[in-house]
Amino acid sequence: QVQLAESGGGLVQAGGSLRLSCAASRRTFVFSRSTMGWFRRAPGKDREFVATIGWRDSSTYYADSVKDRFTISRDNAKNAVYLQMNSLKPEDTAVYYCAATGPYSDDYYDITAYAYWGQGTQVTVSS
Q1: Cα dihedral sign for 21, 42, 92, 57?
Q2: Are residues 41 and 88 in contact, defined by beta-carbon separation less than 8 angstroms?
Q3: C-alpha distances out from residue 62 to 58, 67, 78, 115, Å
Q4: Phi/psi of residue 43, each to 5°?
Q5: Residues facing 124 on adjacent strands
Q6: Burial environment of residue 8 by CB neighbours within 10 A (0 to 12, 13 to 18, 19 or more)
Q7: What is the CA radius of gyration of the chain?
Q8: Fewest CB atoms less than 10 Å from the CB: which of 25, 46, 52, 75?
């Protein structure tokens, strides 16, 4: 079983920054061959796509709501993916989840393509 563990959430004022980290464990999980994504669920809303980074060439894609404020990156040597969040807004308040697809997946936006999920980390942005 692949385990994904998020960290870095917390309480921040509007305009502030946070950096989320996600570490994947399990030696047989070939992290470098999986597309990695960040999703979030705000209170009373469905889980939504935030950002993704592909396995093939680390191409990145973002939801319009976070473009130019959030940056996703990965370190294959550490089996880790990160989400740098700048200029945070109260509407960014949500539980943020790290997710991984199966190997060689290019389904960046399809939530059903993500086979492995972390427990989530709370991000709260105060106004």
Answers
A1: positive
A2: no
A3: 13, 6, 23, 20
A4: -55, 130
A5: 11
A6: middle
A7: 14
A8: 46
